[in-house]
Known about the structure:
16% helix, 4-stranded mixed β-sheet, alpha/beta
Amino acid sequence: MSEQLVPIFRVTDARATAKWYERLGFELEGEHQFAPNLPIYAFLRRGDILLHLSEHKGDATPNSLVYFYVYDVDAIAEEFGVAVTEQPWCREVSLTDPDGNRLRVGQK
C-alpha cells in the first residue's frame, strides 16, 4: 500500500453530511461509534481518495479547507449549480458542505 494523507472534517451529523458528499461521488464505507448516542466517525471513499467525517468535538477545525483535483469539474459544477472559474493553475469551483467545510475542486 502506498502512503496516503486523509483529510478529516468536523461535522455535526456524519450521516447527513455523507449524503451531501455522495453528490461528489463519495461512498460511505463505514462508521465507528463507541456506544449509542456517542459521536460518529465516518469513512468515505471515492476511488483511491479517502475522506473522514468526525462528530467528535476535539477532531479537526470547523470550516476547514481542502483542494480536490478531479477529471471533470464541469460535472461537479452542474451537480451543485455553480460556475466554473478559470484560474491560472486550473479550472475550479468552490463548494461548502453543510457544516461549513470548504472544498476547492479543480481540473488541471
